[in-house]
């Protein structure tokens, strides 16, 4: 009898029923996350005299410095995500194949740290190493290789790519390693015992299985590279036209535009690009989930 | 077998690549930061400058203060939410999952602009508005850390056991659930803290001054000093996140043992 | 593809060893599997049975010894050139390929033309009774169905030898028996030489022509199932195959021992015992019989356990100075027996196996 009683006490409402306990969360995210997004979108659709207009978007869609900035930003994201995904996949493969166990745990932590690095310290670190008077630059110079001879600077597009790779590659390792680890040993062994070569295995089984994860990770890297602000800011103000930076300069008032709310339009444009990339990521995640159930 | 022939060349290539990409810049920067006066010799001079620079302590303190507040607010908000979500609020799971992924999708820059447009005067006049946004930025990681932790614990069983023994809800959460998900909580806390301390984008776009933004300004006066700061921050971040990594693994294992 | 069309192969392992530094996973394994025979390797985990199988498959390399198929040395043949069909414990189907594509995988690797391939795939699907699942994907199939596809895939290439690595261990108990019978039926129908590895003694005993019991990398005994059961060569085999009681006894002379109140003979085996030595004798439950308490040779105890198994009931008797003794008695004879009752039993067989303590 006592058991039945206790049971019914438990089954009665917990710390509130329905959605009530979740209200604080919903209110918080609505106010500090959703509302700002809505607000900036709304303001981007208003012109200088507060009228509804699409004028803020025209400089982005027409050819000009703003359109160009989007092109460069996308190009930067593409290049860094391609480099990051290919090299990261390579490292992930080597780690899964040859470095499982304790050493792997160390690599996991280090990758997590490097993947989340970025921002100002990272930029300055690279300046210290590869700047005009950087340690690496001077060392290489003394060995006969002047990296600055060919118009390279750490503040150029190439320089930024180098710096971004520092966190893109580890991020790829972090995100893609589980997919490689998920390739069951039995598949390769079954393929071998059935008489197929290693190449055939990869072509017919390995790569098709890895592909969705790879593409998903690629999109993730792309979104990250596109949205990065702090690192780019520390390296490129003025030298490389990137959308996040331009938004920054508009906000700081260093650049005045005819369109008062151009910055908002740029911000919304960024949201659109990033969303497309993340949609790609989520789509790819769905595809891998299908096979995971087997 | 043929496989062995590939093994060592691959490992060597991977290691060299990794060395070049990651160790060289780090080491180079560290060396650079130890450069002496006038660029000669080695000394701690830059680090000394760092500590005595105008604004070092003030901004460090500001960042620490905001980071701690963000961490606490984050836990206060998310722990009850996640617990309830996993217990009774299952139908809201995908919605909340999506909301917590959103900060990863929305570029921080855009969020910052949005904040500038949307936030009321009172908030915009106080640096404490940053605390709320730090929490938002940390949401994806917090959600993941707490969710993973809660999944490994037999939440329903624990709660029913506690309740059937007569405990109230608050008691159950504080004395039963929180210890069980210690690992997830610690992880979430440290991550929020680390993210907040290093956050630059929103801080700078909303025109506040914290340690990271001060670094950039200081760099204009003394580039070597700024680099010293950066190396210091970097090493600090590595140490902090390493602790997270160690802790979160430990926490999870402890839960299994306790059960 | 019937027995008449193929030539069954002989599989021979001579002195196969595998060392990992000081650890010997396999220590001089000698085994010959006759054409068309199904031999099961039985033993606890770590005994080396899987290692042996993988060496035959070519997935691992022996540190010494010879592997021969039809007299030909196979040690240096790469795994993908051995023409052996292998079925793994689980998860070996390629998840991104349909059932039909999985089955024809080996055929495509051999560059066989599509007409022949399709015919063979259809044959295989019929063999394992999964014709309607040709276009399904592995994750849509049950565990038992997946293993049937794995079997079909291995057999599609018409291998010389069929290798099975604990193929039933990951399946539900219910399905296990069905699939086990199907494997045996197909194996007999095709007359294919087969090596089957398992840790489940019931599985091995029911399915195999001969069973090889392994322990610590060595083959303890290989014989027909009934021989293993009735004439175990070592204490390990005796206790691993079938249930066994271990009852303390004392050696009284060459081939003789005294078990509590009873004099009994000891099997000749490789073990050597000295007079007066304390040993354990290994006795099957069915070799013990209930007797009246008045019997001189009886061992007296108290009923501690009674498990109804259908026609037989397992009775556990607590006796001072030894672990619980299990007997299997016809259920109708023990209907009135209660836990706590006094009871007496004695050994009903002439010879028993002994082991050092």
Biggest sheet of chain C, in brief? 6 strands, mixed
Span between N and C termini of chain A? 45 Å
Could you name the CATH class of chain A? Answer: Mainly Alpha
CA gyration radius of chain C, whole angstroms: 24 Å
Named at the architecture level, the CATH assignment of chain A is: Orthogonal Bundle
Mean pLDDT of chain C: 89
DSSP strand (E) fraction of chain A? under 5%
- Mean pLDDT across residues of chain A: 83
What does the secondary structure layout of this molecule look like, with pairings?
The complex is a heterotrimer of chains A (294), B (259) and C (357).
Chain A lengths: L1 H10 L11 H22 L13 H4 L3 H34 L3 H14 L3 H12 L4 H8 L14 H25 L3 H9 L4 H30 L2 H7 L6 H10 L9 H31 L2
Helix pairs in contact in A: 2-13, 4-8, 4-10, 5-8, 6-11, 8-10, 9-10, 10-13, 12-13
Chain B lengths: L1 H32 L11 H8 L3 H32 L5 H13 L2 H11 L2 H4 L4 H24 L2 H10 L4 H12 L1 H17 L2 H5 L5 H11 L1 H36 L1
Chain C lengths: L10 E10 L2 E11 L4 E5 L6 H9 L6 E6 L2 E2 L10 E4 L11 H11 L4 H14 L15 H14 L4 E5 L7 H18 L2 E6 L2 H7 L2 E6 L2 E6 L1 H6 L4 H6 L4 E9 L2 E4 L2 E5 L11 E6 L4 E4 L7 E10 L3 E7 L6 E6 L11 E6 L3 E6 L1
Parallel strand pairs in C: 3-8, 3-9, 6-7, 7-8, 13-20
Antiparallel strand pairs in C: 1-2, 1-4, 4-5, 9-10, 11-12, 11-14, 12-13, 14-20, 15-19, 16-17, 16-19, 17-18
Helix pairs in contact in C: 2-3, 2-4, 3-4, 4-5
Explain how this protein is built:
The complex is a heterotrimer of chains A (294), B (259) and C (357). Chain A contains 13 helices and no strands. Chain A is globular and about 75 Å long. Chain A has one domain (64-292): MetI-like fold (Orthogonal Bundle). Residues 1-13 of chain A have low confidence and may be disordered. Chain A has helices spanning 2-11, 23-44, 58-61, 65-98, 102-115, 119-130, 135-142, 157-181, 185-193, 198-227, 230-236, 243-252, 262-292. Chain A is 73% helix and 0% strand. Chain B is mainly alpha-helical and 259 residues long. Chain B has a single domain (49-258), classed as MetI-like fold. Chain B has helices at residues 2-33, 45-52, 56-87, 93-105, 108-118, 121-124, 129-152, 155-164, 169-180, 182-198, 201-205, 211-221, 223-258. Chain B starts with a helix and ends with a helix. Residues 250-259 of chain B have low confidence and may be disordered. Chain C is built from eight helices and 20 strands. Chain C has a six-stranded mixed β-sheet with strand order 6-7-8-3-9-10, with helices on both faces. Chain C has a five-stranded mixed beta barrel with strand order 11-12-13-20-14. In chain C, helix 2 (99-109) crosses helix 3. The longest helix of chain C is centred in the middle third of the chain and has 18 residues, at 173-190. Residues 1-5 of chain C have low confidence and may be disordered. Classes of the chains: A mainly alpha (294), B mainly alpha (259), C alpha+beta (357). Chains in contact: A-B, A-C. Chains A and C meet through helix 9 and helix 10 of A and strand 6, helix 2 and helix 4 of C.
